[in-house]
Amino acid sequence: MTDRAQRVILVGLVITLALSAVSAFLVFPAGVSAHANVARSEPPANAVLNDPPPQVVIWFTEPLEPALSQIQVLSSDSQRVDNDDSAVVEEDPSVMSVSLGDLPNGTYTVAWKNVSTVDGHRVRGSFIFSVGEPLGGAAVVETTGQGLFQSPSEPVIRWLVLLGGLAMVGGTAFHLLVLRPVLSSNGLPAGMADFRAGIEKLALRVVLSAGFVALAASLAHLVVQAAVVHDVSAMDAWGGPMKTILVDTDWGQTWLWRIGLLSAGLVATALALTLAGKGRWDPESWWTPNNYLLIGALLLGAGMLFTISWTSHGAATAGIESQSITSDFIHLLASSLWAGGILVFLPSLIFLNRRVGREDRTAVIAAMTPRFSAVAVISMGVLIITGIYGTWAQVTIIEAFGTTYGWSLAGKLGLVLLILVLGGVNLIWIRRRLETHQSAPLWLGRLIAVEAVVAVLIVLAVGFLTSLEPARQVASREGIGFSDGLEFKDTAEGLDIELTVSPGQVGANEFVVSLADRFGNPVDNADDVSIDITSLDVDLGKTTLIAENMGGGKYGIEEGLFSVSGAWQTALIVRRPDSFDARTAFRFITAKTTASGSALISPDPDKGQVFLGLELVGGAVLFIGVGLAVGGWRTRRGTPLFAPGAAAAVVGAVLLAGSVVGGGGGDGRTNPFPPNQASLAAGQELYVQNCLVCHGELGLGDGPGSEGLNPPPANLIIHVPLHPDPDLYETISDGIFGSAMNPFERVLSAEEIWHVINYIQTLE
Question: How many Cβ atoms sit within 10 Å of the Cβ of residue 280?
């Protein structure tokens, strides 16, 4: 088979596998958010109930391990009042509940603990509610023992697992992409013949050592995990606790896969080390038994890294699990090629500087450096692109950089900037002088040594980051990024409307509406100022609040309740005797007031697919650009770069196209457009053009085209309030079979249908 045929087959295989992966993501969506924190609960935190609830139900941000998760309900004197039947819901493992008896009046504490099936982290928390009386004294629940880390040793163990895995995969890739091609070259100096086996064995010994480090650290990780989850010492974790983790938890099953892949990779590497230097070196044939073993070890090592991504913070980012796992895995692969390559390049340089003559040494280093530079440039570019995605997914808002996770990430970014400078010096200054300056190889080795130290520190920072709770969750729980109050302004029907909500959090809030005419004069003659409050996350119905005239153009509501955290909408209606009704609406997020949850700040799932598509397209440009720089598609060095570049371009384009086709109209459950003046005006115009002929100007079903229709057009004033937004959307989009109400899905866009819904909900 010719080289060109091999290249064509390789590209076709890569693209086929990539498209298969995309199809899997599109057809089989993932189902999990890092650390299983409370998303919401029933009853809500700090709720004051008239009647005792039959049960407590908590929705968490991740699926739970049933055997290791529990809810207890305690009275104010710390006595259990639940029925001791806490259980994870089988149909939705992110939900846990416990039943209650007939509770007397009083304040109750809900204490919960869980272990996530995603990252294996144990989390504890509590909140209170009361029955028949205001919130009072609650049971004391100890939940402060969690700290920043599950265990003080966890960041170091995660660091060693990552460092060993990255060095194993990256070192193997360095051997295949840099070292082996240079040592097999026809242009290799004659004096190097005696050193080929030695340097190859050295590189493989480094890879093998890294693999054993990852294996030992993984075993230690299992012990720590069992100890933390069962709240026992490391010595007591052996036996039953470890067996429970391995048999009964998803984390344990993933750990077994990691150990299996890692062990198989070590066996393949050991066999390759045994064969190193044996047999004839054939520069024309890259496909040797030794290389087959190393390719197998590379794939097994990549599989091991995938198990890390599978239990990473990315896997626990609700709504974008698949995209985040993919991005995290690409990030790890790029890290291995760069950091792992450095950790093998360094001992190779030391070997050459100490054992090989200056002329031969210079020739070999001059041949290796451009190859590794190409790998390093691509890897660093991919790391920057995927790092931006990871930062968006786990930090999400600028204010969250003030958390421990945010500061740790900033420290890591500082180290990355330092290594970029060092790499730039090597690429721009040292590389050009390798063949002309006697000291250049020595300086290259020194700078690579510094890069290796910085790389180890960066991986250490990652070990800390993967052990910490993501910044967005801490910010959500602590109210970081949320103002003490909410303030909104709009203009409708010539009226300047200002709404302030204090404190803008879960629980009781004060609403003040300020009205002024276009000259800034207060408007205090409104007959009625009302606010409709609707939760956009939970179907709680609509609550209408009537404001009292406070004078001076201000209308107030002393106590309006936001019963759950999350997204809310307030729709204002101002009725005046001498003007048209003025309507507007505002949307906002309410922060929690206790430590009972942290699901508020989260990345937008619609943006997740778009950003991943852009990430892959950016990676494609990077690969293809470097491929052109080293010779193009038809060259031996260019083909390996064009293949992944083409695959990334195709997959990125598919994701972007899918986001465009699927976006623009919301999720079909929540109207993405608040009923403000702009939306209502657009909806009214569309109603006149498409609906008035049958439903009439006022929506009474008496339009000029309604005569003789059977069944007659619906009276919208009666029917619209009876149906939630999704039902209205479906009716307009699909029509009503057997009536004159035809489908509008090809007449109106999703956005236009939502505007019509906003308008018809104002008919009265």
Answer: 6
